[in-house]
Amino acid sequence: MPYTSDRPRTSGSRFGGSPRRSGGRPGGPRRSGRPRPPAGPNPLEQALTAAAEAPAPEDQSFAELGIPAKLVTALAGEGMEKPFAIQTRVLPDALAKRDVLGRAQTGSGKTLAFGIPVLARLAAEPKQRVASTPRAIILVPTRELARQVNEALNPLSRPLGLRVTTVVGGLSISRQMDALRRGVDVVVATPGRLIDLMDRRAADLSQVEISVLDEADHMADLGFLPAVRRILDATPADTQRLLLSATLDGGVDKLVTEYLTEPAFHAVKQTTDAATAMDHKVFSLSGPAEKLLVASEIAVRPARTIFFVRTKHGADRLARQLSRAGAEATAIHGNLNQNQRQRALDAFAAGSPRVLVATDVAARGIHVDDVDLVVHYDLPGDHKDYLHRSGRTARAGARGTVVAFAEPGQGREINRLHRDAKVEATNDTVHPGHVLVREIAESGEEVVVRAIPQRSERSHSGGGQRRRSGGGAGGGAGRREGQPARSGSGFGGGFGNGGARSGGGRPSGSRPSRAPRQPAS
């Protein structure tokens, strides 16, 4: 079926709302005539659940789904011959210019579920680029996720004559302004940095035709929704919206009902439960001294290990302590600029060092294969952070082990985390030299150290080769990761944007080394 804007609106579930307005005030949410969701169970959540339970569509190729021929060829060139389940569900409605609310697990291919419709729509209606005026925006919560989306789309956009650029905090804003002035089609952005550029009149969103919100729930967790609203209000009222979210809490449901018009609902069931892909363990310890000794014993294991802590200062301190104990370690957290974070993750991915210490926020930016152990050195604040941290292991079909350290008085807290995360864990009281500690310390295959890839800052803002991870090391401050800071533009919201909050990117899945080679988010 050829690409078309008048495809019958038959697929997907629906939630009430007014028809899409063809005009209206540019720069405003589509609120008029919008019924309020009824009390009781969230109807949006119910619609997504129903969508996941719906029979799977027939297997179709990208061409059969209506993807333009040039894009089909570009996908094949990247080793992508067959769409993933979420893509099969989303693409027909997204290509028909419908608003879409989607949900899919990490590694399901959701990056291209929204990326392909963006590129297809712009390629089907080519227009001359206007300085600082993109035709599509993709909002993501973190720098690393922005990098991942950029790296997935760039190889596909170039054959179509489209230009994709990334604007995030931690990199030169002047270079990003220059890229926008030269004219771009798609901007992949973190909200705070895009607000900075709007305030400097370097980004004009009045001609945006399609907008994507990826990981809307994480944006809500990080306090981004006011910035997201401001950005969406700056786009035309009839802009097509694609919103991807794992959950609809934190105000995401209000965002859906205010900005999406008669959306199609698409979701896929999780194919692997966290409890079956990972072994969850609790090591109960007598206090901080034993905690560090046990961590040091585990850290010398031959395989890659990630330790998670709750503060930036704590990440730097633990990395130093583990290094002094004989396990070379590096830290990654929001106080580092993008190049520092990238260098740290590149080194970790290359196998030297084998130990990475990260904060909660940075958890979403770590996309490294062959991590078979995650240690919650400090317990996370909630079950979602527990799952995001833990998700750095058991990737690409592999198994992994997750160990949580519990000090006296934390038993009830760790039980609540596991209950809310719907995982079962063993719980053992251990000490340095304990048989279970030695078992973990001796586990895993020895890492083969590889050469670290050479990168440049310029590659981060578009046109670079496809790469998998981002990171850095060094620095540190005592401010708890997640506390707000003021940006240079006076906008104070969010992580990883224009000097405001900073952090890592959502696990979107590491791609297996074998075909099919799809970006796994």
Describe the structure concisely for a colleague.
The protein is α/β, with parallel strands linked by helices and 521 residues long. Helices cover 33% and strands 14% of the residues.
Describe this structure in words.
The chain has helices at 43-53, 69-77, 85-95, 110-124, 143-157, 173-182, 191-199, 216-221, 225-233, 252-259, 274-277, 288-299, 312-324, 338-350, 383-390, 411-421, 435-441, and strands spanning 13-14, 100-103, 136-139, 164-167, 186-189, 210-213, 240-244, 264-267, 278-284, 304-309, 329-332, 355-359, 371-376, 400-406, 425-429. With 521 residues, it is an alpha/beta fold. The chain folds into 2 domains: 13-28 and 44-267, P-loop containing nucleotide triphosphate hydrolases (Rossmann fold), CATH 3.40.50; 274-456, Rossmann fold (3-Layer(aba) Sandwich). The protein has an 8-stranded mixed sheet, sandwiched between helices. Strands 11-12-10-13-14-9-15 form a 7-stranded parallel sheet, sandwiched between helices. Helix 4 packs across helix 5, helix 12 (288-299) packs parallel to helix 17 (435-441) and helix 15 crosses helix 16 (411-421). This is Superfamily II DNA/RNA helicase.
Task: State the main characteristics.
Superfamily II DNA/RNA helicase, disordered C terminus, 521 residues, alpha/beta, seven-stranded parallel beta sheet, 2 domains, eight-stranded mixed beta sheet, Rossmann fold, disordered N terminus, globular
Question: How is this fold's topology laid out?
Answer:
Elements: E1 13-14, H1 43-53, H2 69-77, H3 85-95, E2 100-103, H4 110-124, E3 136-139, H5 143-157, E4 164-167, H6 173-182, E5 186-189, H7 191-199, E6 210-213, H8 216-221, H9 225-233, E7 240-244, H10 252-259, E8 264-267, H11 274-277, E9 278-284, H12 288-299, E10 304-309, H13 312-324, E11 329-332, H14 338-350, E12 355-359, E13 371-376, H15 383-390, E14 400-406, H16 411-421, E15 425-429, H17 435-441
Parallel strand pairs: 2-7, 2-8, 3-5, 3-6, 4-5, 6-7, 9-14, 9-15, 10-12, 10-13, 11-12, 13-14
Antiparallel strand pairs: 1-8
